[in-house]
């Protein structure tokens, strides 16, 4: 009879142990499926103005615009809303001898629209400006108001196609399109921000003709219209 070494016997026992403790592949006995549900309806409530410099900011500054401190938003309600429009401040200026362009004092004037309909129909925002008139009814003849270089902003997580923004020159009383959301665009909250230098914002300007200004205050009224389909 052949003799086995102790080490050989130990190796056989160890191998047997390893084989006996290896897990067997599990067999699938049953399977099933389950479903997860959510439904949506349009939000008809108001949307507050967001921070025009950072729409993701959970704590917007108050006031939103130091040059427009009393403006807390329009308070409009519905599934498609115009939430905020800035009042533009040009300050008190000297009357110059020639044609002169005055820059806005507001650093970050903006307009804000929210589309919470969930239909993707698109929308358009238009505006028109009245003549600049003094308290006594005198017209600042030939004055031209302009907005340019608007930046379209939203929350960084917004996956919707953004609306487009236009430069506008209010040289008459016709309505001009500032923002346009085509079908399936402009969902959620969107801003058109005309940022510039604080106290001297050249992206919002008023051109005044020589000899047109009297030494008094003038005001022009902007009329904004949000339509529920692109124009």
UniProtKB/TrEMBL annotation:
Q: Where is the composition biased (Pro residues)?
A: 55-64
Q: Which InterPro entries match?
A: WxL_dom
Q: Does the keyword Signal apply?
A: yes
Q: Where is the WxL domain?
A: 31-230
Q: What residue spans carry the region label Disordered?
A: 40-80
What are the UniProt keywords, alphabetically?
Signal
Extent of the signal sequence? 1-26
Quote the protein name from its UniProt record. Answer: WxL domain-containing protein
